[in-house]
């Protein structure tokens, strides 16, 4: 763990303490209603967040119409190579879930790390492949992004997700360059844009390990598949994916 990550952790704990003191027992999203028991959200906000759930493909995690999955794949991922063996997601990117993610990633509400981690861990616990997973791996960011935005949502969630899933968090990947933003690119352009951006950590060899990659938002799956490709080349037997939200 680097100095920036330790600093972020201290800052987040301080921010969470300030929020708890200033608005004790208030929902972390609406800040108006009281939290539900053993939750960071009120009943209404949790219902709105979970309302974004729609059917999705268990292989690529893209939204699908009912009854379109055959042999574990939807029509889209039957015609495209998907490196991850399976994926889960909390919901479709929209509504209250998108609002919460934007607050967390861009709005400076880093105290949502625990809430987002709990939501992601809950969906991972529904995965039929969880028993096979030996470790959690976070999709990393690069130092340029850390300078611009200071905190990285997936990195903040990762230790809490791993703890909730009862698996170790292992820093197997490094992002070696930022590159152009993925927003606005086509599916094929996203694949080309992310290629070569990640590298296995120095000295790592994976002996048929089964790993779960976590990220915040999945658009085309290019980032998850690029990371999975690197892990497979290093010796991983299977790589799964879990995200908070999927775009389409």
Task: Characterise the protein shown here.
This protein has 248 residues and is of the alpha/beta class. The chain has nine helices and six strands, in the order αααβααβααβαββαβ. The model is unreliable at 1-7 (pLDDT under 50). The protein has a four-stranded parallel sheet with strand order 1-6-5-2. A two-stranded antiparallel ribbon has the order 3-4. It has one domain (54-246): Rossmann fold (3-Layer(aba) Sandwich). α2 (43-50) packs across α4 (95-106) and α5 crosses α7 (153-165).
Note the main attributes of this structure:
single chain; 248 residues; alpha/beta; Rossmann fold; 4-stranded parallel beta sheet; two-stranded antiparallel sheet; 9 helices; 6 strands; globular
Task: Briefly say what this structure is.
The chain is of the alpha/beta class and 248 residues long. The protein has helices at 3-22, 43-50, 75-78, 95-106, 113-124, 143-149, 153-165, 187-194, 222-233; strands spanning 87-92, 135-138, 173-175, 198-200, 210-218, 238-246.
Low-confidence stretches: 1-7
Identify the CATH architecture: 3-Layer(aba) Sandwich
* Share in helix: 25-40%
* Quaternary organisation: single chain
Q: What is the topological layout?
A:
Elements: H1 3-22, H2 43-50, H3 75-78, E1 87-92, H4 95-106, H5 113-124, E2 135-138, H6 143-149, H7 153-165, E3 173-175, H8 187-194, E4 198-200, E5 210-218, H9 222-233, E6 238-246
Parallel strand pairs: 1-6, 2-5, 5-6
Antiparallel strand pairs: 3-4
Helix pairs in contact: 2-4, 5-7
